[in-house]
Amino acid sequence: MKPNYLKTALTLTSPILFAGFFSCGEAEPERPNVIVIYADDIGYGDLSCYGATAVKTPHTDRLAAEGIRFTSAYACAATCTPSRYGMLTGQYPFRRNDTGVARGDAPMVIRKEQYTVASLMQDAGYSTAVVGKWHLGLGEGGFNNQDWNGHITPGPREIGFEYSYIMAATGDRTPCVLIENGRIVGLDPNDPVEVSYEQPFEGEPLGRTHPELLKMHPSHGHDMAIVNGISRIGYMRGGKSALWVDEDIADSITVKAVQFIEKNNPKVTGKPFFLYFGTHDIHVPRTPHPRFVGATDMGPRGDCIVQFDWSVGQILETLDRLGLAKNTIVILSSDNGPVVDDGYHDEAVTRLGNHKPAGPLRGGKYSIFEAGTRLPFVVRWPGKVKPGVSEAAVSQVDLFGVMSQLTGQPAPEGAAPDTHNELDTWLGKSEAGREFVVIQSTGTQAIIRGDWKYIRPSRGARYNAHVNIEMGHDTIPQLYNLRTDIGERVNMAAEQPALVDELAGKLEAVVGKR
């Protein structure tokens, strides 16, 4: 952590920490439960509480109406693995060279010796769990070194999550199985799982060789192993009894999240809980459960947004039913911005209509422009957070610092080097926000300070034709006034050379020379 933050954290105790929330003479409150709902590929304009009209998200809207809706909140990166890494470790993913989008057979990206926000919450006396999308690798010692048919370790438990029910990577990558506490669910030992990202398995049909077996066809890539009528990235053989049905994944992980809350009800256990709930719905392949098919006019992508909102509703209903809502902080955001065609012909492009997944922002997933990392971000804590809208700058890398301040639990020296204590901002007690936010895409970084955004020069492609997204790369410096030009159309670098130098120097001090 930052030295000034660490000094503060080390001197805190819970009674002092919570004193500001209660009047003199009131009893010391219970520590709040914390639920992080982390959406996948949901953009700034994908939810009705952020202006969407082609899709309705009443449960997320309720969360926003009862909490704070931030309009200048950022993920660490424009893709999933690095965003998750940054949020859970409090360390910018660009500080390591192995935090890119992980293969399904990748080793653990977060090292088992690293101290994470889950470690911190565990040390603070919380029951901890991760349910849903993981995409941070499993095992160690190189690619495809996991014991898929035994105990897969290291995994979430080694970095602070006592319970886990996860996908190894994403829905479009093998292995296509769910893993509970390090073991594949429903696996028949007589039909072991084999995974490869190098060579196909003899006799196994592939999307590129057997398109007649597909119910959803790839638009680019995604033409390898076929599972549930959908071809994937990577090869796989065996494990037939354990293979997931894509249409059931949202139900499965939502049920497990609800069960964790029920089993770890603090009124019974005496311990608060921390739940990281990683949904997958909007990420390809988009396969909504039949009861959500046709919920919108946008096809599977729109229907999956409604399905995501249903999952949010199930979490809120569970908190209400158990009487836990008042003392539970719910944080909702997304890992990166939106993408429409991300590898499958699923009508997402042809049925998009007037819907703007990125709202007024430029770019999308993978991009250094705003739509890559500027995302929905909502915080609700009934009675402690005053409902409203905040323009304060927020970064997901600060989850660690916020949780440390919230619980009064200090972190070991050297942990979470990039996190800040932004608890007052997240709870709506301050509009100050971060002094600056640093973000990354594949190939470059940017810094946002106040109204201004500076993008580092780079030689990457300016446009990704596969996904139809502007990447934001340019060989010259870019400077945008986000207050007057949220769409980043007018590069002010030539008119503001002193500001360019100042922001470039600040970014270089954080990132280092590249």
What features would you describe in this structure?
The protein has 514 residues and is of the alpha/beta class. It folds into two domains: 347 residues, Alkaline Phosphatase, subunit A, CATH 3.40.720; 69 residues, Arylsulfatase, C-terminal domain, CATH 3.30.1120.10. It is 21% helix and 17% strand. The strands form five sheets. Strands 6-5-4-3-11-1-12-13-2-14 form a ten-stranded mixed β-sheet, sandwiched between helices. Strands 15-16-17-20 form a four-stranded antiparallel β-sheet, with helices on one face. α3 crosses α8. It is globular.
Give the strand content.
Answer: 15-25%
**CATH topology category name of the largest domain:** Alkaline Phosphatase, subunit A
Shape assignment:
globular
Q: CA-to-CA gap between the ends?
A: 23 Å
Number of strands: 20
Number of domains: 2
Number of helices: 11
Oligomer: single chain
Q: Quick one: CATH class of the largest domain?
A: Alpha Beta
pLDDT < 50 stretches:
2-28
Class by SSE composition: alpha/beta
CATH-derived architecture of the largest domain: 3-Layer(aba) Sandwich
- The biggest beta sheet, please? 10 strands, mixed
Spatial order of strands in the largest sheet: 6-5-4-3-11-1-12-13-2-14
Helical percentage = 10-25%
List the defining traits of the structure above.
514 residues; alpha/beta; Alkaline Phosphatase, subunit A; Arylsulfatase, C-terminal domain; 10-stranded mixed beta sheet; 4-stranded antiparallel beta sheet; 11 helices; 20 strands; disordered N terminus
